[in-house]
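Consortium newsletter contribution from the modelling node. Members have asked for a concrete example of what our holo predictions look like. Here is one, prepared for the zinc ion complex that several groups have been discussing at recent meetings.
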Amino acid sequence: MNNVIRFYEPDQSYGFLSNFAEYPIIVDGVEWHTSEHFYQASKFMARDITSQIYHAATPTEAFQLSREYDRQVRSDWEQIKDNVMLRALRCKFSQHNQLAYWLVATGNNILAEHSFKDSYWGDGGDGSGLNRLGELLMLVREELAGQHPHQLVRYVESAQLPMDMGTFTMHGFVEKKTGKEHVALSYGEIDTKKPVLIRLHSECLTGDALFSLRCDCGFQLNKALKNIVEHGNGVLLYLRQEGRGIGLLNKIRAYHLQDEGADTVEANEKLGFAADMRRYDFCKGILHYFGINEVKLMTNNPRKVNSLTKAGINVVERVPLREGRNPYNNNYLNIKARKLGHMLDEIV
Ligand SMILES: Nc1nc(O)c(N)c(N[C@@H]2O[C@H](COP(=O)(O)O)[C@@H](O)[C@H]2O)n1
Ligand SMILES: [Zn+2]
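And here is the predicted structure:
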């Protein structure tokens, strides 16, 4: 038996599901303050009434205005109201990407508008109501879940992540193809009307968390986060691709082979792996959550530029991230340049 998610007030748990939640929708080129404004105005043919509702300052005022003109509701309203509501919901969740991911994240749970006052759109307070709003929300959820790029990742939850350099918001996703748990760290107001500064950072436990000098990862992570703070906004995608996709223990095996003289590519290949096993196609889903289509990408790795471009993301600028070169990783960085195409100078 699936759980029931009950919602009602916009400022309470799952409030985004309410038509009173402050998310504008565009219908036939007209922007409505909320889906409630559009729904209530749709009850009337008289333009003076629809105009008053359109200009209502709040969804509550739009609702109250509709009640004042109750005697002038269009004669066919009972026959069309479900389709009007469905149209409003499809607009709301197709025009607000994060709402769509939050809705899909409710999974197979039953959605119920918990309203003692409404036994048609709501559950009647005791579950005896028709809950048509919940039913239509579950229909829209099913439609979205079957659409690209919702098939790439499933949003789970977000939380604040304070760091010395600033407070980021951490967003957790599950990559549907592999079950891997990836994280996006967003900072500031993400303005998707211009290219967003981002970093695709592949997990490197040794570099990111154990202060390793064998690679440049930890230095790049630190610099990328600082760049985002200095820029004022941006997103770092922290991708669970340890060891260029071969995993931590195989990376230790690769390091052992390198301790015996192999280079970073030869070691991977001796273990039976390709030089680089990573994929980035699912990043399209994480970027879609933020509504991001144009990016300034912090990387030295052309594969990341090409992969995002192939996924339909417009990489308008590559921002070099040359950090942390030292005697312990100099040869590694030279091989990344020579054999993996990284845009790094070779320094002997
Ligand atoms: N397989 C493998 N062998 C090595 O010698 C390595 N240093 C790594 N490191 C992994 O590479 C990724 C970062 O590389 P990019 O700069 O993003 O190309 C990251 O997954 C490290 O764990 N892997
Ligand atoms: Zn590393």
